[in-house]
Amino acid sequence: QLQLQESGPGLVKPSETLSLTCTVSGGSMNRSGYYWAWIRQSAGEGLEWIGSIYYSGSTYYNPSLKSRVTISIDASKSQFSLKLTSVTAADTAVYYCAREGGHYYVDWWGQGTLVNVSS
Amino acid sequence: QSALTQPASVSGSPGQSITISCTGTSSDIGGYNYVSWSQHQPGKAPKLLIFDVNERPSGVSNRFSGSKSGNTASLTISGLQSEDEADYYCCSYARGSTWAFGGGTKLTVL
User: Fold this and answer.
1) Are B99 and A40 in contact, with CB atoms under 8 Å apart?
2) Residues of B in contact with A62 (CB under 8 A)
3) What's residue A31's pLDDT?
4) Cβ contacts of residue A44 below 8 Å, gap of 6+?
5) A60-82, pLDDT tens digit by residue?
6) How far is A53 from chain B, CA to nearest CA, in Å?
């Protein structure tokens, strides 16, 4: 059974960079043919797709966040990562890593990790 | 504000059927057959219920079904059970290579 686990700081200061890593177990990322995604959920808000990366490194991002987002992958370590620059309080959210099962849907989710942006 | 509109809450009694709607535009739901639904329960990883409008992943109960008409997608849960109590989210591909999510619907089993 595939498992995804987010890790990273739970507190980030405004204007700094949020960095999270997702470790995948129970399946290989190498040549897996899947995209791997980051999705977030702010308190009281709905879900927001941040971006996705293919095992080869090809990416596509939410246009509203594209200028601040970088997603990278190290399939040999079964990990992919998120960097979000110049954060503000509006970036406070639960961040999920996930696997895209096919056409723009998630078939496996991590448990999520809360990141607070505060001084 | 979410791109797709869902009712904030729905409720039903055990054994009944309920339907959750998800309304978008011709730029997302209406333009593509890429609608999915997920179930979110506290303390658990979210679970995929429906993909590609009406396809069920292996292992998901056939009590869950999806459909679409125009710019509105729907999730129907039949034979409601107490364990179905959760938040449900719709998601659609949207023009411009992006994803749109609904604001979520809280299901209460009475």
Assistant:
1) no
2) 98-99
3) 65
4) none
5) 999 999 999 999 999 889 999 99
6) 13
| Regions in chain B scoring below 50 on pLDDT | none
Q: What share of chain A is helix, strand, coil (3-state, %, to 5)?
A: 10, 50, 40
> For the stretch A51-67, what's the b/e string if a residue is b when 16 or more beta carbons lie within 10 angstroms of its beta carbon?
bbbbbeeebbbbeebee
pLDDT digits (tens, 9 = 90+) for A6-53: 999 999 999 999 999 999 999 878 767 899 999 999 987 789 999 999
pLDDT at A97 over 80: yes
Q: Is residue A110 packed enough to be buried (19+ CB in 10 Å), middle (13-18) or exposed (0-12)?
A: buried
CB distance A106–B38 less than 8 Å? yes
Q: Which two tokens stand for residue A6?
A: 């987010």
Cβ pair B100, B3 in contact under 8 A: yes
Which member of B34, B48, B102 has the closest CB to residue A106?
B48
Our CA-based measurement puts residue B36 at a distance from the nearest CA of chain A, in whole angstroms, of 6
| Chain A residues interacting with chain B (CB cutoff of 8 angstroms) | 4, 45-49, 60, 62-63, 96, 101-112
Question: CB distance B92–A104 less than 8 Å?
Answer: yes
